[in-house]
Give the backbone structure.
Amino acid sequence: MMEVPFDRRIVDDVLQRMGIANIGDATIRQSVAVSEEIERLTGTKFVHFEMGSPGLPACAEGVAAQKEALDRGVACVYPNMSGITPLKEQASRFIKAFLNVEVNAEGCIPSVGSMMGTFATFILCAHLDRRKDTILYIAPGFPVQPLQAKVLGYKTEQFDIYHYRDEKLRDKLESYLSKGNVAAVVYSNPNNPTWVCLTEKELQIIGELMTRYDAIAVEDLAYLGMDFRKDLGKPFEPPYQATVARYTDNYILMLSASKIFSYAGERIAIVAISDALFNRHYDYLQEEYGMGTLGKAFVFTILYTLSSGVSHSAQYALAAMYRAACDGKLDFVAQTREYARRAERIKAIFCRNHFHIVYDKDLDQPVSDGFFFTIGRRGFTGDRLLHEFLHYGISAISLRPTGSEQEGIRVCTSKVAPDTYDILDERLRIFDRNNPIT
Amino acid sequence: MMEVPFDRRIVDDVLQRMGIANIGDATIRQSVAVSEEIERLTGTKFVHFEMGSPGLPACAEGVAAQKEALDRGVACVYPNMSGITPLKEQASRFIKAFLNVEVNAEGCIPSVGSMMGTFATFILCAHLDRRKDTILYIAPGFPVQPLQAKVLGYKTEQFDIYHYRDEKLRDKLESYLSKGNVAAVVYSNPNNPTWVCLTEKELQIIGELMTRYDAIAVEDLAYLGMDFRKDLGKPFEPPYQATVARYTDNYILMLSASKIFSYAGERIAIVAISDALFNRHYDYLQEEYGMGTLGKAFVFTILYTLSSGVSHSAQYALAAMYRAACDGKLDFVAQTREYARRAERIKAIFCRNHFHIVYDKDLDQPVSDGFFFTIGRRGFTGDRLLHEFLHYGISAISLRPTGSEQEGIRVCTSKVAPDTYDILDERLRIFDRNNPIT
């Protein structure tokens, strides 16, 4: 075991050997590799804040249903491209139960994780109107989503929401939309990495502008139900998950099973397309793909060519988890509340040692505790803080690659076990002593 | 039960209601829908030749391993992007055992079926060299592969191999490659839809040209081992599956689990990249994606943004099936030989009723019996034959959308149960009587 801070040379050597000039530029997986290598060399365990993986076991209802489906022989049968009927029906019911929004089963389509959901949706949105060729990201966000557009060769725009909350969001959004080239607006709610939750008013602004400028809101609900300031876990009872779907027909929702049911390993999500969009005809889509109806083109051209469907057995798993949640037998919100409990403790440790929450409020309310939060230190850029933390056995990711213009780092609470709190507190105390705020 | 031929109006009404002007233009899934609707209206079962789905149960070794993995809790853990270690190792071993080719485990990467394998590979190949922007398809082929390029907005070329076998293939290929814009050459072997098997000499020609013009052979081995004229099912013993990998370093192989292990439902395949390509640096790739090494860019940029990995439990299934096959405990070639037995019987019924095999030979040898074959009728275009067959309770797909310039239809043997042979014979006899060859 080495004392913190570690010998400068150890960290510098590892970064140099891995060809990383600036740890703030490393991908999440590179950050993991760096911290694991330093762990090996120092014999000292890191506190891992970098990985956004579930820290809970997979929902048992899903595992049981998936095994049953395998026993019934689904592995040899190509899954229906639109999704198996029980999954579509339960997905529609789940959206009614927890969002209080009606989406036909037809428009609830499985994808290989929300990763494929957004990839496919970006292709779709770029082929609806010849003039609309740009994806607008409300940042900060999951950095892989702009990367998807880059892989596809599509144009992107983004802005940091930090200074544009509430009514200010309208003018900012309109400054892009009024150019007439925006096909889709992408955001996550609750937000990765900041845990900012857009208010119903902000979602109403987005919805109204989507209708006015005929763009599509791509709402990533990976952390559905995890605004723990309210109890969003009672099916068919308010309060409900906030959503743009109340304010426009131009929406496509991403419902990943990875975090809400801790089912990341099996790569499954639902893409929910509003009834109006699903049935809408687009001349440009017809011209480009020979299939003019949005829902049909999405399923039979785009999703078909991407993977020819989604794991047959995992579809049964997700159907069973939705059913159990709607029946009130699986309180997924109560299960994931564990992340909020961890966040509360970890935030307290940081604040006690003179760090601050960067994205601290939704208007006048402190942000919810949850899966992620953001940390800054006066006098430190995010990148420098990250680099310095490597010497203290703490690993995270910088806010910069998420599209944030604020200085800080993202802390993920999911993998931090309670027995790490004392170690974290000790390391931050040493950091605080060595780097006094002036 | 209606007698064949059915009343003209029934078939015409169904096609009109489904908006299908020409059944030869229908997708496979539309063809299924048409025949099922006519079945409903006539009360008469079709002989289904259209769907290329496995007609055998999934390999038990895979199902057992997948369930065990779920029991061990893999559903909550994001799968490693490069694939789990046992799968990579067994895939490398499988390629050695059945192709007698060495590919490092590192270059054996799971994808969500070969569908995603080719989609991702087309993106990769289009970003290696700024001048090389075109995918060349050796037709006929799986029509969805050119559709993938269309979805991506990439340029394509294709030619029908019918008149270009053996040494003639060299000049034909060179006429495209010499333009300098071909990034990749795509073909399947055995071939869907014709069951043509390229000879080692033809593969050598392709390989040599790939090296000379620095293009990549994308070899789809969906039906690996199914040239049943030889026994390709003994691990580590000749004869081996024919492959271009013997003749160039510029290859990427697609090994789907859908047909060889009847595992289509779980959407898993291996993309095997040659060691030389995997480690090769491309300036244009570096420029476009910020990651210049082919293997790394493929995994961490392209596959990552497509689906963030492949079903964790299905990876264990495939690892177990590869292991069993390499250990000589699972003779997947013997199992799939059932398709050849069906093909032999069905071909005999067609020929007895004066139909002919369209793609009938590999040079001087009759094509193997297997999963697919092609049928023509003197005096009929493929589209007209297909349309006429609807009145006889027979459903298939036209060769035209597969890129063939020959007149005929594709027959898939997988779903045809032996108790259908007499019905087929009777219907073809009536057809033959009603449509005498002049």
Observations:
- Chain A is about 40% helix and 15% strand.
- Chain A touches chain B through 57 residues (CB under 8 Å).
